[in-house]
Amino acid sequence: MKQIKSASERLARIEKDFFKGVDLAKASGLEGEERRAFRLAQVERLLTENDGASPLAMWLSDQFWTADEGRTPMPGGLTLQEQQSLTDAEMQRLRLIVEVAGLCHDLSLHFTFDLKEAFGVKNDFWVTNKQLVEWLSSTPYERIAMHTAYTMRKRAICVYEYGHYMPAQDALAELFSMEYSELVRTPDSTDIPPRAYVKIIVDALLSIERHWQRGRRLKLRPDLVKLHDEIYGLVPRQFDRGVLAAAQALYDYMDKELCGRLVLEGYNYDASSWSEQPESVRRTTAEVLGRFAEKIREVRSKYLAKGWVTDDSLAFSYLMAHGQRCGYGYWREEDDGL
Fold first, then answer.
1. Burial, 75: exposed, middle or buried (Cβ in 10 Å; 0-12, 13-18, 19+)?
2. Beta strands 182-183 and 176-177: pairing type?
3. Contact (Cβ atoms closer than 8 angstroms) between residue 59 and residue 116
4. What's the DSSP call for residue 126?
5. Separation CA 193–CA 88 (nearest Å)
6. What are the residues whose beta carbons fall under 8 Å from the beta carbon of 22, sequence distance 6 or more?
7. DSSP per residue over 72-121, as a string?
8. 73 pairs with which residues across the strands?
9. SS3 of 178, please?
C-alpha cells in the first residue's frame, strides 16, 4: 500500500473516505446559518452511515482527536506545519471538515459542546433549556437529537451522582421504556425510534426537575427532599405528608445526633481496606451506624405503612449511605439545591 506522505494526499484521502459526492469546495464558502445547516446535515449522515461496527462519525473524529474530552489532537494527525503546506482552497475545505469532525467527536463520545455554535440555541445542557428541548423535539436531524439527548442524560447522572441524589441517579442510569420493552441504551445500541428515544429521556429529566421545583415551592431543604425520595426508593411525582414526616424525623436525628460522629481520632487515611482501620475506629463506626439503622426502623414503625423500607430494601441502603455521609461530616453542604 502506498504510504501517504503529504498533507494534500492525507486531506484527499479524508475527503474520499468521508465526503464522497459532497461538494466541499462550494460548501467551504458558506457562512452563518447556511454553514451550520451544512455541518448538521453532514454530521447527521455520518452518524447514520456505518463503516463496519461503528458509524462514520467516529472514524472521522479519529482522524483528528483522541477519545478524550476537550479534543486532544490525535498523534500522527495533520500537524500545524503540514497544514501550512496546503493551498488556500485546501485549507478552506479542511476548516469545514474539522468543524464537522468536531461535532462528530463530541456527539459520538457524548461530551457536552457549544450548543449556540452547533444548533443556534442557548448553551445549557439542562432540561430547563426550553430552546434546546424544542430543537430536539422538532429537528429533522434525528440522529443528532438522539445523541444530544443521551448526552443530557449522561450529564444529569453525573450531577446527581456528585450531589448524592441516588434515586435520580439510578432512575436515569436504569431508564426503561415500557412501550418498547427495553432499557434506554446508547443511540447506536437501541431499536427505539429517534423521536420516541428523545421524548423518553426528556420526559424522565423533566419529571425529576419538576419534582425539585415542587420541593423548592414547599421550601424544603435539599437533604429533606433526598431523604423523602430515598424512603420511596425512587423519584416520586408528589410529596407524601407521611413520608415527609418520616424524612423530617430522620433529618432531625442526623442533624443533632449523627453529623460528624464518624470523624474519628486515629482514623487511618492510608489504609487500603476497612480491616486495616484501628479496632476503635471500626467499633465506633459500627455503633454509630447501628444506632442510625435503629432510628430508621423506629421511624419506619411510627410513620410508614407495613412493607416500607425493609432492611433488605434499596430504600434502606439509600438511607444508610446518606447517614454515613452525614457521619463523615458531609451534611447540608448543598443547601442551595441541585
1. exposed
2. antiparallel
3. no
4. S
5. 42
6. 42
7. PBPTTS--HHHHTTS-HHHHHHHHHHHHHHHHHHHHHHT----HHHHHSS
8. 65
9. coil
**Quick count: other Cβ atoms within 10 Å of Cβ 21?**
4
The Cα angle at residue 161 between residues 336 and 245, in degrees rounded to 5:
60
Instruction: Quick: pLDDT tens for 196-223.
Output: 999 999 999 999 999 999 999 999 999 9
Q: What CA dihedral angle connects 292, 298, 300 and 305, to 10 degrees?
A: 170
- Give the whole-angstrom CA distance, residue 150 versus residue 199: 11
Distances (CA, A) of 310 to 12, 118, 301: 65, 49, 10
Q: Is 131 exposed, middle or buried (0-12, 13-18, 19+ CB in 10 A)?
A: middle
What amino acid is encoded at 119 in this protein?
F
User: Rounded to whole angstroms, how far apart are CA atoms 158 and 271?
Assistant: 27
Inter-residue contact 2 to 11 (CB < 8 Å): no
Tell me the C-alpha distance between 253 and 257, whole Å: 5
Positive or negative torsion for Cα 309, 315, 320, 323? negative
Beta partners for 332? Answer: none
pLDDT digits (tens, 9 = 90+) for 161-176: 999 999 999 999 999 9
Query: In angstroms, rounded to a whole number, what is the distance separating the alpha carbons of residues 168 and 250?
Result: 20
Please say if the pLDDT value at position 333 is more than 90: no
Q: What predicted TM-score, i.e. pTM, was given to this entire model?
A: 0.91
Q: Which residue, chain included where needed, has cell 425529576?
A: 208
Instruction: Please give the single-letter amino acid code of residue 186.
Output: T
Place of cell 463523615: 328
